[in-house]
Amino acid sequence: MEKCRFKGCTKEVFKNSFCEEHYGEIIASIRIDDDLTGRSAKRTKEELSWLLYLQTLCFKIGSMFGSVINGYQKLFNVTVEDASFILEKRADALLRGGKYEGAASRYEKIMRYKADDPKVLYNLGCAYSKTGKFLNAGKCFEQAIKLDDKNKDAHFQLGLAHLREEKYQEAIDAFNKLIGLDPNHVGAHYRKGIALDKMKNYDGAIASFQKAIAINPNIAKIYQSLGFSLESKGEHSEAVKHFKKAIDLEEA
Fold first, then answer.
1. Number of structural domains the chain divides into
2. Are both 84 and 130 inside the same structural domain?
3. Residue 156 and residue 146: Cα distance in Å, rounded?
């Protein structure tokens, strides 16, 4: 007699490796996640959805054994690849939902199995940034860029991490690399201007803000920052013009 796949259950299989009781409980509560479509050749979308539904229990079991991945493997006959995929889906959901500490802890566990995955590195860096761990975030973005140097988002986030660490030249270098990939990246020109202003390079800052405005003339904060840089140079009348423009855009 084939036994139910659920750990500890000795009942006979009813359908899809589960007994009638557990099959009914799972099916009643499943939410099929569209993101799972086609993601695993080894398991069907339905099977992976069952595993996702039971993730809370898996996390508890994982803690007992010192590893979330082990929790999945001990609850079901799953591969490390499947288990880490399930954990990554949970981490992604936590990141989207603003649960950054939880997301970071799960991405850290995934890194044990997917240390060379640029997406996981990037997401871990984003989670670190949201929790104020900018140094750790920068290291993640740097590793992600080594694996995929065309990743514009990673270059941008690396620049932001350096900026928040007050490493202004490193921030400028990161934004310059991004501008090399995408000359019309408004955010890169704007944030480069912020870093230049912090270094008291007001001419450079003004030039960067003006480039950003040339690409998109409808962002109030860029005019405001341009006004501050002009004010720092003593160009009061020009600064006032840009402050007024910023107010007009905010009130529009």
1. 3
2. no
3. 14
